[in-house]
Structures are given as structure tokens and as C-alpha cells.
Amino acid sequence: MFCVLNTAEKNIPAALNLLVAASLIVTALFLLWLASRLPLPASLVIGLLFAMLLLTNYQLIHEATHGLLHPSPGVNESVGMLLSWLFPVSLTLMKVTHIVHHCCNRSDHEMFDCYYPGDSRILKYFQWYGLLFGLWWWLVPVGSLLLALNPRWLYSRPFRKARTTTRLFDDFSAREIRRVRVETVFGLLFWVLAFQLLQLEWSAMLILYGMFGFNWSTRQYVTHAFSPRDVINGAWNLRVGRLHGAMLLNGQWDRVHHQHPHVSWIHLPELARGKAFDLGYWQQYRRLWRGPRCCREKGPRCLPRQGYEGLS
């Protein structure tokens, strides 16, 4: 099922990643500074740019969670943390939960787009359209803060009872909890410093992040919704324009990424050579708004972490 990659395919574009990361951080802070000094209509226009820019920022965070942002682990973690504070979230939280995603993809724990005949359709529709209207982004920084303050909250009955979160926080070690706390503290200091030095306004901050939150949340499941119930192959390769693909750092090749999770974004088109796209990006995006579907197919078993680490 998995091919063996040669050394060239495993290379990380370190200089390019650092250049994009530095440009993103400077531009994002500049847009926040600018929006804090302009009237509301102008802030909305800036918010559109900000919402697209931070999608690329998220893709770089994604690279860092896989250890693919930079070949030096120290640089990978340091730059990844800085990018994560811009989200804002703990890099360690993103890393652990993203590994869970790769291990449990399209299992019952990640069946957001479907429901079984015995499930509550009201709850499923609430969860699904909550995702599409931006709810997921707000849960990420809040979850990061909750995990830092009191990890036991995330093991409480509501989290343990919900099918989609029973596996989400199982893999945190004591060391990773400590890292989440340290990263959250430094993330808060980052924003205190940014507010002081740049004289940011809360109203502008909420507008720009509200627009980004909607943009990020509504796209989060676009490459997985209604795909096969398969841990490795349960994702789509979506057709996009050249500029859109560059903004997503080739994230439209998501099935290729799930088949080769330890390969840099820059090599995904090469690995996908000769493979057709499944459907168009915006065609798939429109399908999301039709709502979740009834499913009678049994979901796959989750992979152990060793299984994820063993993928090429």
C-alpha cells in the first residue's frame, strides 16, 4: 500500500519555509495594526486578506506538527510555536490531536459528516453547521487554554461521552501537558507584547479573527467529507487553481498526504503524478452545505500511533 520514498523526496525546503513563515508573521501583524487604525468598512476588506493569509499560516503549523517545517527539531519547534501563537493555539496540542486525526481518520471518532440511523439528527446537524459557521476555530484556542489550566476538564463526562472526543485527548503525556502550559503562557505574553507595541484594538482583532475563524472552520473538513471510510485513503485530492494551491501549500492533495504523512508539502504534487483529481474544490465545498448524510457502513478501526509513525 505504501511506497518507499527516496532521499530527494524527503527533503524539506527549510529556507523557503522560514521565508514564508517570517513573511506571514510580519504581514499578519501589519494587517492587525492597520485594521486598528481604519474604519469598519476598511477593516472588513483587510479581514478578507487576513483570513486567507492565516490559512497558509495554518498549513505551516501543520508542517511543524509533522516535523517538516525545518530539519532541525529545535528550529521546527521554535518557529512552529511562533506560528501557532498567531493562530492562536499550543503547538503541542495541535501536534498530539493531529496525530490522533491521522490514526482515527474516517473512524466513528471522526465521522462528522455522517450519522448512524440511531444517532440524534438534531445534534449532528448542530455539530455540522456549527463547523461550517465557524464554531470550530473558537473551540481550538479555548481548548488550548482549558488544557493548560486544568487538564481534568477535558476528561470530564461530556468529553468522554461524545463519540468524536473520546479519543481526542487520550494521547497526552504528562510531559506534553507541561509543554502545552508553557506554550500557552508564552503565547499569552506574545499577545500582550503585540497589543502594547502595536497599539492594537480589540474590535479590529475580533473582526479579523472572526473572519479567519469562519474561513478556517468551514474548510477544515472539505478534503474529508463523504470520503471512503478508510483511515489511510479516506480523503480527497481536490482540483484547485494554481494560486489557491500555493496558498494551501498543496493541501488539496490530502489523500496523498495521508498516504505519506512524513513528506513535505512541496513534494506532494510529485507523489501525485499520474493520479487524477477526485473532484473540484468548490464543487466539494458546496456539497458540505447540503448537510450530513445517513451512514450504515461500519467505520474502520483506529491505527495505533506506531502504525502512523510507520507510514512512508
What's the number of helices? 15
| Binned strand content | under 5%
Mean pLDDT: 90
Number of domains: 1
Q: Rg to the nearest angstrom? A: 19 Å
* Helical coverage, percent range: 55-70%
Number-wise, the strands total: 4
Distance between termini?
Answer: 10 Å
What is the overall shape? globular
Description:
The protein has 312 residues and is mostly helical. It has one domain. The chain is 59% helix and 3% strand. Strands 1-4 form a two-stranded parallel sheet. Helix 2 runs antiparallel to helix 3, helix 3 packs across helix 5 and helix 5 packs across helix 9. The longest helix is centred in the N-terminal third of the chain and has 26 residues. The N terminus is likely disordered.
In short:
The protein is mostly helical and 312 residues long. The chain contains 15 helices and four strands.
List the keywords.
two-stranded parallel ribbon, two-stranded parallel sheet, 312 residues, disordered N terminus, 4 strands, mainly alpha, 15 helices, globular
